[in-house]
């Protein structure tokens, strides 16, 4: 094993011939190989008889006595240990190596490393013994060093022949780590432990092998016996082994280290690439200081990582404004456990953020907390979105006012407050009058703008603590929590004035009034729902009472609302269930007494409610829109009935049908009228439509256009309830009407109220001067009849002549006359 630094005397090997004495018995090959070797070389047979020895052995150990040479070696050069242990072991295993002391003939002692190889194929079979002298202490010590550095080295080491690339010697760690036995290694070349893709690199490396002794190193992939691979850090030195150029290789398995390095690199990269700001603080006597900050810190807080090193986390987060958060942070940094906090740090530019801070303590080897890993997640967008969602859930999208949900919440708080401090609480339900008309005529955009403008005005007038809410549509609510300290009457008046002030929307000026319903805590309800319901009822009452009014809730209103709800639900099925019918009231010429026509009046016979008068359900039908379908049915039924009477031979008369404003709004009236006439076959001159005065005056432009269309068909038109609305004479003359109908309230009072009588006379004179016929409704007495006749009223309608009659009764009346 001459990989040891060679002893001084071996550097100039004596190339003398070996003793020839035994060459015949052991063969010339021995002389050739070992004759001039600077080491001890000798061969013995199984009995210990010396077969050959080289010159170095004979020179250093001394020539053997003749009988020893002839008989046995043991008595001279070899210690008993060699005889008793080494040779039997070599015989058994093929090889033995160990340190022994050879004994010179003169009694001198020669420490050597002895290798013994069993050679079964020589004649006779023999042991080839090679020994390296260790008599020099340095050599001995380097041998020991070798033992520990090479053989017992924990990392694989080997020597390979630079020409054949064969392994010449491998250590135990190589055997253990590569999985090959030592014998297998010695039959392999260094190519065998390389994966194919590295062979070219190996070849290049070998070609560029450095000069003797120079170190070469690099990271390679090696293959184990089982095919698995490992990353090895290889360093090698050129040496000479048995006179041949070789390289001593040291291979350090760095697979784990590389994996660890990769894992660390990945983690480092993850830290750098994290969208969350990550800060590592180190524990210091007077508080934790920042030791590391990733780039996300800049994105989140505006500070560069370098600029925050050595600072405190608390100062980085700039939490001066938030005492409580500062305390929580300090508690988290002192806690032994991971903690998560919601904080409001400040960006370097002053912007307030929302962040979630997760603080995790890192324990040092001794167990104490050495570091804290602090992860800051930007929650600003999430929190803002959450706030936005909350706002959306609690506010009206159009006006931004609190919606019903938030109003109820505020009401619940206000009720609690009022209970505790014995205050009263007012709830005002404000509904815009005729808002639907504005929407329909001016468009939804203008409608929306108007709602926003009204919302703004209500807010402007509200006191601190009041809530202005929008419940949808044109309905606003005002919650006045400490109302008993305020002059409510003036508040209501001011409210109505505020709403009614003209609003300029683009190039239009819009004016809208409102109806206000008021409920008061605790008198009108003990909770939000009740108070809202009752304010709503009162608001409906205000609307019924003629709009632009305010109305306080009264218990009786509740019954009316309940009845209205009942009517509404039942009316939906009235048509389909054939519960509706028409009665006809004759119109009579005041001069001739002849029947000139009849007004068709609707009747509803309900199985449980009985006969429901039009006064109870027409208004509901108009509000719910059911009047459109009901109106169509009335029109078709009246036309069909009139035609049926004519076909039955009765004198042709004109049937008058009442129209509601809603029927005008849907723009299908002309179509409906034509269809009713066509289906029934009735000529247009036998149909009259009665329009109320307020209907005509509220939609002048639209009504004028529709009336012009209808008049072209040839039908007659009358203005119903004349005198109850606010007719403008300027408009009146635009309508091509045939009749003015004096409202029955005037007929009823004209004989007792001189002013009413004057109105009646004026209407008659006005109508006739405009070319209309005038008909008085509700004539019940002969006196009324006389008065009307006296003042040249054209026609009358009333119980005095006849109540409304069923079709059969009406036909009978006609027949009798
Ligand atoms: N006290 C008294 N009343 C008299 C007298 N003569 C007639 N009346 C009643 O006066 C109302 C006249 O009808 P209107 O003014 O058009 O007033 C009608 C009309 O506005 C509406 N209406 C009735 N039928 C219809 C319909 O088919 N369509 C529409 N849109 N409204 C209708 O309902 C209102 C009430 O109808 P009715 O209850 O049938 O009431 C009828 C009639 O029965 C009298 O001498 N004394």
TrEMBL record:
Domain EAL intervals: 564-817
CDD domains linked: EAL (cd01948), GGDEF (cd01949), PAS (cd00130)
Domain GGDEF: 423-555
Catalytic activity, as annotated: 3',3'-c-di-GMP + H2O = 5'-phosphoguanylyl(3'->5')guanosine + H(+)
Biased amino acid composition, Low complexity: 1-12
Species of origin: Duganella flavida
Gene Ontology biological process terms, A to Z: cellular response to nitric oxide; regulation of DNA-templated transcription
GO molecular function, one term: cyclic-guanylate-specific phosphodiesterase activity
Record PANTHER family: BIOFILM ARCHITECTURE MAINTENANCE PROTEIN MBAA, DIGUANYLATE CYCLASE DGCP
SMART domains named among the record's database cross-references: EAL, GGDEF, PAC, PAS
Residue span of region Disordered: 1-24
Protein name: EAL domain-containing protein
């Amino acid at each position: 094993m001459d990989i040891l630094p060679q002893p001084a005397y071996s550097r100039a090997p004596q190339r003398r011939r070996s003793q020839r004495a035994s060459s015949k018995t052991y063969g010339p090959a021995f002389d050739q190989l070992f004759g001039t070797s600077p080491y001890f070389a000798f061969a013995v047979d199984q009995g210990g008889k010396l077969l050959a020895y080289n010159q170095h052995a004979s020179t250093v150990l001394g020539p053997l006595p003749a009988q020893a040479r002839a008989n046995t070696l043991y008595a001279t050069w070899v210690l008993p240990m060699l005889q008793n242990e080494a040779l039997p072991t070599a015989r058994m295993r093929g090889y033995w190596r160990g340190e022994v002391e050879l004994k010179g003939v003169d009694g001198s002692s020669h420490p050597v490393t002895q290798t013994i190889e069993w050679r079964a194929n020589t004649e006779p079979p023999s042991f080839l013994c090679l020994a390296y002298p260790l008599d020099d202490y340095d050599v001995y010590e380097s041998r020991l060093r070798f033992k520990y550095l090479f053989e017992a080295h924990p990392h694989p080491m080997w020597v390979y022949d630079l020409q054949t690339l064969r392994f010449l010697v491998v250590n135990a760690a190589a055997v253990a780590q590569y999985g090959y036995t030592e014998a297998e290694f010695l039959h392999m070349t260094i190519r065998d432990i390389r994966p194919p893709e590295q062979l070219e690199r190996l070849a290049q490396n070998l070609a560029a092998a450095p000069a003797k002794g120079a170190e070469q190193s690099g990271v390679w992939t090696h293959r184990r016996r089982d095919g698995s691979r490992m990353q090895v850090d290889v360093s090698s030195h050129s040496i000479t082994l048995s006179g041949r150029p070789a390289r001593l290789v040291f291979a350090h398995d760095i697979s784990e280290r590389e994996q660890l390095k990769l894992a660390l690199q990945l983690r480092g990269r993850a830290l750098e690439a994290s969208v969350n700001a990550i800060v590592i603080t180190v524990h210091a006597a007077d508080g934790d200081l920042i030791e590391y900050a990733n780039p996300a810190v800049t994105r989140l807080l505006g500070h560069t990582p370098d600029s925050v090193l050595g600072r405190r986390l608390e100062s980085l987060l700039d939490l001066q404004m938030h005492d409580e958060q500062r305390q929580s942070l300090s508690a988290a940094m002192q806690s032994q456990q991971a903690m998560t906090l919601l904080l409001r740090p400040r960006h370097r530019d002053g912007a307030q953020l929302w962040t979630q801070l997760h603080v995790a303590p890192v324990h040092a080897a001794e167990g104490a907390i050495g570091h804290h890993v602090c992860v800051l997640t930007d929650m600003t967008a999430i929190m803002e979105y959450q706030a936005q969602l909350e706002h959306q859930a609690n506010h009206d999208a159009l006006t931004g006012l609190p919606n019903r949900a938030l109003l109820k919440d505020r009401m619940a708080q206000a009720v609690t407050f009022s209970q505790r401090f014995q205050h009263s609480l007012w709830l005002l339900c404000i509904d815009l009058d005729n808002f639907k008309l504005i929407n329909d005529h001016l468009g939804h955009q203008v409608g929306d703008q108007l709602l926003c403008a009204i919302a703004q005005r209500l807010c402007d007038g509200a006191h601190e603590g009041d809530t202005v809410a929008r419940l949808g549509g044109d309905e606003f609510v005002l919650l006045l929590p400490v109302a008993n300290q305020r002059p409510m009457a003036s508040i209501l008046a001011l409210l109505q004035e505020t709403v009614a002030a003209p609003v300029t929307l683009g190039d239009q000026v819009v004016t809208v009034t409102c109806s206000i319903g008021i409920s008061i805590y605790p008198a009108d309800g003990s909770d939000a729902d009740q108070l809202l319901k009752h304010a709503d009822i009162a608001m409906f009452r205000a609307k019924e009472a003629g709009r632009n009014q305010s109305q306080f809730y009264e218990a009786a209103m509740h019954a009316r609302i309940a009845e209205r709800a009942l009517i509404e639900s039942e009316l939906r099925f009235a048509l389909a269930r054939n519960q509706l019918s028409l009665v006809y009231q004759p119109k009579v010429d005041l001069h001739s007494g002849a029947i000139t026509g009849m007004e068709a009046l609707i009747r509803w016979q309900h199985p449980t409610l009985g006969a429901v008068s039009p006064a109870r359900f027409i208004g509901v039908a108009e509000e719910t829109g059911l009047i459109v379908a009901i109106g169509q049915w009335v029109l078709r039924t009246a036309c069909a009935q009139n035609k049926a009477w004519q076909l039955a031979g009765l004198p042709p008369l004109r049937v008058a049908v009442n129209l509601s404003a809603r029927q005008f709004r849907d723009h299908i009236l002309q179509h409906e009228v034509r269809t009713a006439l066509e289906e029934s076959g009735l000529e247009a001159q036998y149909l009259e439509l009665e329009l109320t005065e307020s209907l005509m005056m509220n939609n002048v432009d639209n009504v004028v256009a529709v009336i012009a269309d209808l008049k072209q068909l040839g039908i007659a038109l009358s203005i119903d309830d004349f005198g109850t609305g606010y007719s403008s004479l300027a408009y009146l003359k635009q309508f091509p009407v045939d009749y003015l109908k004096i409202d029955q309230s005037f007929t009823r009072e004209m004989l007792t109220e001189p002013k009413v009588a004057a109105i009646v006379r004026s209407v008659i004179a006005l109508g006739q001067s405009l070319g209309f016929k005038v008909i008085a409704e509700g004539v019940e007495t002969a006196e009324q009849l006389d008065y009307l006749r006296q003042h040249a009223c054209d026609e009358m309608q009333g119980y005095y002549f006849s109540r409304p009659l069923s079709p059969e009764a009406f036909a009978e009346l006609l027949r009798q006359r």
